[in-house]
């Protein structure tokens, strides 16, 4: 018993170690994704391009993420989860270490694709490993994963800004010395000739932000290797603990609907976060600082609500959290689409919309796990749907906004996507529960029929037993009567020689009552005329 208790404690400790390492990895995921924004101008200068000329590095990262999600989904069902995540984080570390020194745009795109592929594997595998590890209790841990991602995305610009500030003073001093030396050696030098020197030194500050994030991810990958060495079969045991008897009857249609659901949800989230700054300045006529504050309100509410959802998921079911989020999303998007010209509606609607979008993705994964088995390939489809939404919806909105300058396309987009998600979830819920309800009804009907048949058999058996008892009782009564009559006849026959005429005269009446011929002493039947002739023995 003591050994079993220790094993139970070790298993619980291992699960918590896996969950903590996953949260640390998702924090690094947020850092590695969000650091690209503030360092984008420097990376463009490194490869000798304008910012508008290297937009394809985002496409490369997105395509890499799609490929990593698909490949990771297949590999996750074939190899140990912790080992796969450790290797994917090593790939992210290698890409982050190489990017600051990259001087070719093509090579930069390849490195971004490598990082995107590693991110796709981590995003897919992290969610599935949390499900395998915690089973039906995975809700709060999934929320913790995505909260860690939001924290990482929030910290990345701060890390980059700290590196920028630490290098600005050195950069200004170096740039001043460089300008003086250039002016002395080449009096006709233009100011533009000094720009590369300034940019090169400027890149040194951002170099350390990539090194810092890459080193952090390297340490997290070491923890995954340790987990792999300690429990190489953890994946199989965890997977076996949550496997169900069979897949849902409508498994793939349900997965397809959730794929579309995530496409619209993530597309709306990224679109609003990307365009709200521009909308505030163009349509709401805010200053740059006010627009930046509005953008911060959206992402701040998003991150805070993900933190609160960790505790909410322990009290509420995933379906309840999704319904609450969808209702808040529909209400806030309606206010933003039709009442955003009021400043109060814009600020409050932005905060509520950011909070409502925070919990849908992890809650959706936890919800579908209740109805069917979520394996690597299944989870990869969810990540692919989210990545497609992130790629396609902002592009479409940007194109339409460029065509129709006076229409707030972004606000109408979030309204339409909210309506689509509100309509999709009831359809998914009905599809997930309808076969189960029908099966339960069939089981109930079968049990009722079995009960009725059992009762019918019992009734028939009882009736047969009752008939048998009645016949047995009747047989016993007949046997007893025959025994009494035989005894009486025997006694009578024994008393005939000395009996009185009155006793003898009673014999024919007894014989008539029995319906049998009289039996005399010599065994021959008597005459039927009512007079008995006795032959005297010689």
TrEMBL record:
The chain crosses the membrane at residues 12-34, 54-76, 83-100, 106-132, 144-162, 207-229, 250-277, 323-340, 346-368, 380-400, 406-429. The keyword Membrane applies. One of its GO terms (cellular component) is membrane. Signal peptide: none annotated. Gene3D superfamilies: MFS general substrate transporter like domains. Residues 490-538 are annotated as: Disordered. Keywords: Membrane, Transmembrane, Transmembrane helix. Its main location: membrane. It is found in: Membrane. It is a multi-pass membrane protein. Belongs to the major facilitator superfamily. This is MFS4B protein.
